[in-house]
């Protein structure tokens, strides 16, 4: 699902400006190689997943509160000052 979404996000802006009909053999080969490299990295890093995830949780707390502050500022603080 993540690969599908990322490809969609990448292709949509490119497709807006550049017309192409179908990807050729070279594009498919490059895509397959990139996906295999990503799979290899994911398999190598599975041992550290819980440690990395535990280190990421405090960062999410900071980012979530920062997002709330920015949204409150955008929607409730007037942009004009008298």
Write the layout of secondary structure elements.
Layout: H1 2-17, H2 25-44, H3 49-76
Structure overview:
The chain is mainly α and 82 residues long. The protein contains three helices and no strands. It has helices at residues 2-17, 25-44, 49-76. The N and C termini lie far apart (49 Å).
Question: Can I get a quick summary?
Answer:
The protein is mostly helical. The protein is built from three helices and no strands.
Unreliable runs, pLDDT <50, ≥5 residues? none
What does the main sheet amount to?
Answer: none
Please tally the helical runs, counting DSSP H or I stretches of 4 or more residues. Answer: 3
Distance between the termini: 49 Å
Q: How would the global form be characterised?
A: flat
* Helix/strand structural class: mainly alpha
- Computed CA radius of gyration, to the nearest angstrom: 20 Å
DSSP strand content: under 5%
- Work out the helicity level: over 70%
Q: What is the string of helix and strand elements?
A: HHH
- How much is the average pLDDT? 79
SS elements, strand count? 0
Relevant terms:
single chain; 82 residues; 3 helices; 78% helix
